[in-house]
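Q: Could you fold this chain for me?
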Amino acid sequence: MSKMDAKPLISGISKPVSQLALGSAFYNVDSKEEWFDILDYYIKVGGTIVDTARAYSTSEEVIGLWMEARSMRERTIIQTKCGITADGYLPAENFPQVVREELTTSLRTLRTDYIDVYLLHRDNQEMPVAEVLEPLNREIDNGRIHAFGASNWEYRRLTEANEYAYKHGIKSFAVVSNNISLAHPTAAFYKGLVSTDKTGEHWHEETGIPLIPWSSQARGFFTGRYTPQMRDDFALTASELDSFTSKMLKVYGTDENFERLARAKELGERKRRYTAVEVALAWLLHKPFPIVPIVGVHNREELASCVKALALTLTEAEIRWLNLET
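A: Sure. Below is the predicted structure, expressed as structure tokens.
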């Protein structure tokens, strides 16, 4: 059985960080035993970091129950999120109170007295970075969080926040959780989402701050369940395609992305029994900066496939080919 390596990676966190983080956005307490099994297997294959959020239904509750039942709190890095309005922005009004109250709820739900990594789920560019950073620093001083990060923040804002923190001698973002994958989205899948572009990649190289990307496998695009024929067949009405499929085709269904899919499939076959999904994940793991992709899996087999991708080595020429550069 393949296993992940783990090493210290996040400033403020002494626990080792595994090569893949486990996503839990769809966990539901009504089927908690199903998710307990995946969490158990994730630990068995060397996983250490579990991603969740206040906004993810009963995900925090499932993880809290699992950690309590398995006595796993000190072996697990919990990354949860706060701060998202219905409009897809960080709430500016009473922000310190929002942080305090959402964190209190997360701690209670997760059955713990601290959060390892606390992420802001969105940004609000009308808020000065000082107003964002100061409440988070207070929670570090109180011991309720050990590090904090930003999800769906533009890199200009991240630079501004880090510069402010440096000048004022306070903590700043220890991690970033934006989207990146081999498939390039044409637009944000939901309002307020941010993807890491080439500028962002250079930022991570220069700062050494880890990227913990969501939708690292492009929401299942590389499974092959979405095709150019589905996109181009005008006989398929909106009622015949579910809303998620329609959105996937709109956001990811470009000729370039379908070519990336075809090349990932071809390369996987040449590499002997690797799938396009595994090739796409391996491509991400070859980035020249610290990166811990979040993988959302529904069973042990899918998780084993993700772990298998860790053993796949790609050459620079193969990476350029997947990038459509050659």
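A (continued): Residues 6-220+275-312 form a domain with the TIM Barrel fold (CATH 3.20.20.100).
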